[in-house]
Amino acid sequence: MDVTTVVIGAGHAGLAASHFLRERSIDHVVLERGEVANSWRRERWDSLRLLTPNWQSRLPGHRYEGADPDGYMTMGEVVDFVERFATVTAAPVRTSTTVTSVSYSGDRYDVLTSTGAFRARTVVIASGACNRPVVPAFSDAVPAAIEQFTPFDYRGPEKLPDGGVLVVGASATGVQLAAELQRSGRPVTLSVGEHTRLPRTYRGRDILWWMSTSGVWDQRYDEIDDLTRARRLPSPQLAGTADRSTLDLNTLTALGVQLVGRWAAIRDGKALFSGGLRNVFALADLKQQRLLDTFDALGVSDLPPPERFAPTTVPTASRLQLDLRSGEIRSIVWATGYRPEYDWLDVPVLDAKGRLDHDGGVLASPGLYALGLPVLRRRKSTFIHGIEDDARDVVDHLAAHLAHRP
Amino acid sequence: MTTVENGVNVQALLEARTALQGAPEAAQFTWRATSKWDHGVHSTTRVQQFFGLGAEQSHKAESVFDADHPAVFAAEDNGITPIEYLLVGLAGCLTAGVASVAQNRGIQLRSVDAVVEGKHDIRGILGADPDVRNGFNDIKVTFSIDADASKEEIEALVAQSQKRSAVFDALTNPTDVTVEVA
Ligand SMILES: Cc1cc2nc3c(=O)[nH]c(=O)nc-3n(C[C@H](O)[C@H](O)[C@H](O)COP(=O)(O)OP(=O)(O)OC[C@H]3O[C@@H](n4cnc5c(N)ncnc54)[C@H](O)[C@@H]3O)c2cc1C
To answer: Care to name a GO molecular-function term for this sequence (chain A) (predicted)?
Structure first.
């Protein structure tokens, strides 16, 4: 079938692209291997809520209209929210349609799927930035008696064996799962590398209100000094909970979680952790303070005075080794990040590390675009509220491309 | 940014970073030291040649290091103990890092002093207690820095220098070490 544009993926990014394509009357289809909002349905754990507040959940022409603007959506609510957007915009989604190959033949993209083929002049890759969990290669050396989980097969604590859990990674996913598992009665050891510490609220406002008000979210990719670093930044230690409480490492220590350094290797059945814990604490504490200082410098009036937070407490005796055969650890949860998957992409646009090589979502192959990647065009690019500006810009570029090549 | 002069050619380092991003082969360095046993626990180690940027390289001059043990170990004390060389390496690396980061951030340094202390329970190496490790139990570095910067900026310098330090990484993270007989 011939179509002007194929959009791959019916998450909020693909649907936002569809919205702007429709606005410009560009005929298109949105191909989705599962259902609309598939990642939120199948790839998240049960207790997860958004870490962005309800008032911030907005898509082009579509916003949260419930009674609790300061609350955080459950997964069911996110699915409803995205699904309603698809309905309202009448997005031409083809569900249960897996893209198996995209290739370029001079002026057309051949898109092969599990249900048929498309020929398109332009393609928008909105297949998600988090298709697979990243797990370090040394996980192969974990003794077989220990059960291993990723955030994709973790649903809740009850599926894990009783006994100690080693949670690896202290970004949003890791700190949330560590807290939940510790509260379930399983003693948690959390391996902490570089991380982003943030308080849930600051001077009475949600920290994400400050991020918006200060303009940090809107910072453009071509204004950022170290873009590579910005694109690899760990997600912030935040959780969306009813009491709007902070979930930093001090909270976890108070819950009884044992902190160890970055997991560097397994040798002779022993996990070896970095002794650099103090430094990653210092880096995160300093960075948090600098960010709060920039918020204070905004001079917002009528708010409580600036707050200062205690430095991250260094454990009195941080362990450098843990014997994985001793029975102390019964399961491991790898919260070591996510990566996109492009095994279906047969256009040479990946860099040496298998990432899309793009300039603000524009790929080197003419007519090929991407959305929904970290700091694609702005700091907010991967967030729900961040897609509107990016999708508009990318579709503008796509429309100009079509106009130049009738 | 005001011009500061800490004597670090940051421009050259930044250019090298850009150039090496596209040429990972050239970034592969091999540092070398050759040692010779003298007598007792005294040995002499020489350092001059290394490999990098795809070719053999050489320091301006050869450096010679004596390693021995002190009199309290019933040795002749012809030089510092090998584990003290780790402190030398850590101090040199972190200090270089502080200077480079300061230069890059436009911070003028006036003095940078560090005290490096490694706590060592020697029952480990003596085999007196199998539960005591051979190496340092912990290392403490205390910097005293006089610079045109706030306390927070100075703390950030020190934190960043650890983040990019080869020796800090080598000491805090396990490294694969192969020792063979030729
Ligand atoms: C654990 C977690 C928590 C998050 N929390 C928040 C939050 O609180 N607030 C916030 O704003 N953002 C959050 N995000 C970030 C972001 O909003 C989500 O990752 C979101 O799912 C990204 O939307 P997307 O449309 O870019 O990708 P996805 O939602 O992943 O959509 C991509 C779609 O493409 C489909 N697809 C993939 N490959 C193919 C193929 N070959 N053929 C056909 N279809 C394909 C997938 O099935 C999927 O439906 C979170 C992310 C994660 C992982």
So the answer is: flavin adenine dinucleotide binding
For the entire predicted model, the pTM comes to 0.91
pLDDT confidence of residue A318: 80
Using one digit for the tens of pLDDT, what is the confidence trace for B72-101?
Answer: 999 999 999 999 999 999 999 999 999 999
Q: Are residues A394 and A282 in the same domain?
A: no
Picking from B119, B172, B176 by the largest number of A CB atoms within 10 A of its own CB, the best residue to mutate is B172
Residue A262 domain boundaries: 136-334
**Nearest-CB residue to A276 (from B152, B168, B174):** B168
Domain residue extents for chain B: 30-71, 81-173
Please tell me the residue having the least CA distance from ligand 1 atom 8.
A50
Going by C-alpha positions, the residue among A378, A361, A373, A367 that lies closest to residue A400 is: A367
CA of A26 to the centre of ligand 1 (A): 24
Residue nearest to atom 22 of ligand 1 (CA): A128
| A274 neighbors A264 (Cβ within 8 angstroms) | yes
Give residues (CB < 6 A) around ligand 1. A 8-14, 31-34, 38-39, 44, 50-52, 98-99, 126-128, 130-131, 173, 338, 344, 372, 382-384
Sheet of strand A263-267: strand arrangement: A263-267, A270-273, A321-323
Q: Whose CA is nearest to atom 5 of ligand 1?
A: A50
A269 touches chain B (CB under 8 A): no
CB contact under 8 A, A283 and B163: yes
Q: Do A275 and B155 touch (CB under 8 A)?
A: no
**pLDDT averaged over every residue in chain B:** 94
CATH code of the domain made up of B81-173: 3.30.300.20
Round to whole Å and give the CA distance between A251 and A199: 11
Specify whether A323 is located in the same domain as A355.
Answer: no
Q: Give the residue from A282, A314, A334 where a domain finishes.
A: A334
- A37-55 pLDDT, tens per residue? 999 999 999 999 999 999 9
What is the pLDDT averaged over residues A119-139? 97
What is the rounded average pLDDT of the residues A166-181?
98
| Best residue among A127, A155, A207, A212 to mutate for probing ligand 1, ranked by most atoms within 8 Å of CB | A127
Number of domains comprising chain A: 2
A123 Cβ neighbours under 8 A, 6+ residues apart: A5, A6, A7, A8, A102, A109, A111, A367, A368, A369
Instruction: Find the mean pLDDT for residues A366-387.
Output: 97
